[in-house]
Amino acid sequence: MFSNPEFVRNVRMQLSTGKMVTAVMVAATLSLVLVFSLTHISAPAAGPSGWGFMLLRGLFWIQGLILAAGGGIACVNAIYKEKDQNTFDFQRITRLSPLELALGKLFGAPIFLYFLCLCFVPIVIFSTVKGQQSFLFVLAAYAVLFIGSLTVHAFALLISLLTVRGSHTAAIIFILITLWFFSNIFTLTSLY
């Protein structure tokens, strides 16, 4: 993957030092605010009703939103920008196979959002320890989050490939409505 020119191009475009420092600062500030606000409630840290587990659950929802919605929009924009700048045809005639090009866009377009979620890992570890949760449970949740986000990203790339000029906003709205619909179904089925 690290020798894929499309992936490397996306990494160079999106992971500049200034953006990475800003992302770390925003994640650290949000983490401090969350920890400060949750530690001042009277509930204990451990257990399913404790603030440690509430913090862990909230962080996974934030990371899911970042990866699913933000990554989906980044993937929709990946091919749309190429079409808009008339460079998509040049990419199709490069020496890259279609699979290499698709994987470069799939993992490269949302790379900044993956980095942003990586910035929240220290507070996830903190909330796992304070909430007395299993690290295996957290790793399994991250695996589900990663696979689900890859599915959304692949769907967004397909939608982006099939859009025509002038329907970019409709494609983004379609992705967001689809995410909202499936998150509601997931929430309703987990309640029963």
Short description, anyone?
The chain has 192 residues and is an all-alpha fold. It is built from 9 helices and no strands.
Structural write-up:
It is built from nine helices and no strands. Helices cover 80% and strands 0% of the residues. The chain is an all-alpha fold. It has helices at 5-14, 17-39, 51-84, 88-92, 98-108, 111-119, 121-130, 135-162, 168-191. The model has no long low-confidence stretch (mean pLDDT 82). The radius of gyration is 19 Å and the shape is elongated. The N and C termini lie far apart (41 Å).
Which SSEs are present, and which pair or pack?
Elements: H1 5-14, H2 17-39, H3 51-84, H4 88-92, H5 98-108, H6 111-119, H7 121-130, H8 135-162, H9 168-191
Helix pairs in contact: 1-5, 2-6, 3-6, 3-7, 3-8, 3-9, 5-8, 8-9
**Taking Cα atoms only, what radius of gyration do you get, to the nearest Å?**
19 Å
Unreliable stretches covering 5 or more consecutive residues: none
Give the overall form. elongated
Q: Calculate the terminal CA-CA distance, rounded to whole Å.
A: 41 Å
- The structural class is mainly alpha
DSSP strand (E) fraction?
under 5%
Largest sheet: none
User: What is the residue-averaged pLDDT?
Assistant: 82
What proportion of the residues is helical, as a percent range?
over 70%
